[in-house]
Write a structure and sequence with these properties.
heterodimer; A: mainly alpha; Fumarate Reductase Iron-sulfur Protein, Chain B, domain 2; 2 domains; 11 helices; 58% helix; B: alpha/beta; Rossmann fold; four-stranded parallel sheet; 49% helix; binds iron/sulfur cluster
Chain lengths: 193, 289
């Protein structure tokens, strides 16, 4: 199934289901050597907007507090800058661990993260269809999946600027030729095993 | 100097001017760029946020196609997000045979096989090290001595892999900018994060990050970037941010090859300065008069 179709057909769950526990174990392994020094927090450009600091998030991962983790915005606020990974005195793969949490939120389609998840899946939908992302199609798919009639207005000023420059053109989403269908399908198959 | 060239999706859309200025600039310096045939998306930040395996399979597909092109062993990438995705596969498969096998099971769907022979190079790395400031200096037709430039590196060409620069205190742009005659704006924001795709899904957070960068750039005539995402975030929201901070934070933002191209006397059309959102009249008069 293509990325957006899958999103539609899945149940929207409010809290973390049982499957999360398994995947959380591998993330716990990634941060098991954490000494709670706080270097990650001090290095994170997005810490000011987080409810749990990165250090606190890792503490909760170590304790397996999945309710706390998946009600927190923290991992979805990671902008993948790699400062924490670079500076962690224990050399832990922290950015990858943040991404692994995002992957669970996307797979389980957890409600608190639906904005980011829909954006990422709209992106991949466009890639799945054409082999490359078409920026205008991505935005259209994202607006449609968010089902918020006012959302496009937020982006209109930028859209008009970019169109004026000839950088993007109005594009009705099309099915494309399913250029990367086989790759997506194989990845999905391997991940289920 | 001969490289395979992977423009990536942004350079065909919102970053068209990065594409044309890179091609023109590199050609002017005698480098040959061969565009990778039939290239596909690297997955950007979207694949990594949804599936670990997909985030490796998509760039691996690009590298496998690259390995099939004869005679060229290095692939040049101007976009930092594409660069890191491709670099990650290069680095990971070198240490992890099992992962390479798994990737090849996926690539077999496209009758491709990855061997791990391609070296991934960022445009900045190539310009700073293969071209170098001496060669640039020798070709300068229009020294930009009146300008103070703030070099902005962003994250993903610096971290997590420190390949060609110091990830804490980057300086690879300084020599080549000075070669153009311009001066360096001394600041410590060069490697800070612009918020990346937060600008779409969490604008309130990304706007704060960009505001901090624009504030520290005060005193410079322009910021120079090496990534389409950084460029867009730094230039497209200046009005909004100025309103938010109640001060004028507008600032011309140029891609590195656009800026260096100006010093080399390349035409405004070839560098596609008309496409920048922040190429102000005042700056134009300063560099093109
Ligand atoms: S920097 Fe590393 S060791 Fe220190 S708190 Fe963060 S994860 Fe733990
Ligand atoms: S990689 Fe993510 S969590 Fe780590 S410092 Fe950067 S934004 Fe914060």
């Amino acid at each position: 199934m293509n990325p957006l179709e899958k999103l539609e057909s899945e149940q929207k769950s409010e809290t973390a289901p049982a499957l999360v526990i398994d995947s959380l174990a591998s993330i716990r392994d990634m941060v098991s050597a954490c000494i709670q020094c706080g270097t990650c927090t001090g290095s994170c450009p997005n810490a000011f907007a987080m409810d749990l600091t990165p250090r606190q998030l890792w503490y909760n991962v170590l304790r397996g507090e999945k309710e706390t983790i998946f009600h927190s915005k923290t991992f979805s606020l990671c902008s993948v800058c790699y400062y924490c990974t670079l500076r962690c005195p224990r050399g832990l793969p922290l950015t990858e661990a943040m991404s692994a949490l995002k992957q669970i939120a996307a797979k389980e389609n957890l409600a608190p993260y639906k904005k980011s998840t829909r954006f990422y899946k709209s992106f991949l939908e466009s890639v799945y269809r054409h082999g490359r992302v078409r920026e205008m199609e991505l935005m259209t798919l994202y607006f449609i999946s968010m089902k918020n009639p006012f959302l496009p207005l937020q982006f209109a000023p930028l859209g008009i600027k970019l169109m004026g420059k000839g950088k993007i053109s109005f594009e009705i989403p099309s099915k494309g030729n399913g250029a990367l269908k086989a790759i997506f399908r194989k990845v999905e198959e391997l991940e289920q095993n | 100097m001969k490289y395979l060239y992977y423009p990536g999706c942004s350079l065909e859309g919102t970053a068209l001017e990065y594409n044309s200025s890179t091609r023109t600039f590199m050609q002017e310096l005698g480098a040959e760029l061969i565009e990778l045939e039939d290239w596909t998306c690297c997955g950007a930040s979207a694949a990594e946020a949804t599936s670990h395996l997909l985030s490796l399979a998509l760039p691996a597909l690009v590298l496998a196609k690259a390995e099939n092109m004869d005679g060229v062993k290095e692939i040049l990438v101007p976009c930092s997000a594409c660069y890191l995705n491709l670099k990650k596969v290069e680095e990971k498969i070198r240490k992890d045979r099992e992962l390479l096998d798994q990737i090849n099971i996926i690539l077999a769907e496209e009758k491709l096989n990855l061997r791990g022979q391609m070296k991934v190079r960022h445009l900045l790395d190539v310009v700073a090290n293969d071209v170098g400031s001496k060669k640039i200096f020798a070709r300068v037709k229009k020294p930009l001595t009146d300008l103070i430039i703030a070099p902005y590196y962003g994250c993903q060409c610096l971290r997590p892999y420190s390949i060609f620069d110091d990830p804490e205190d980057p300086c690879s742009m300084e020599g080549i900018i000075k070669a153009s005659g311009a001066n360096i704006h001394q600041w410590n924001m060069g490697g800070r994060c612009c918020g990346a795709s937060h600008m779409t899904t969490k604008p309130e957070v990304a706007l704060e990050l960009v505001a901090a960068i624009l504030k520290m750039a005060r005193g410079a005539d322009a910021i120079v970037t090496v990534c389409p995402m950084c460029q867009m975030n730094l230039e497209a929201y200046q009005k909004k941010i100025s309103g938010m901070c109640k001060e004028d934070l507008s600032m011309p933002i140029l891609y590195l090859p656009q800026f260096l191209g100006l010093a080399l006397g390349l035409s405004e059309q070839d560098l596609r300065l008309d496409m920048n959102l922040s190429f102000t009249k005042a700056f134009r008069n300063k560099v093109l008069s």
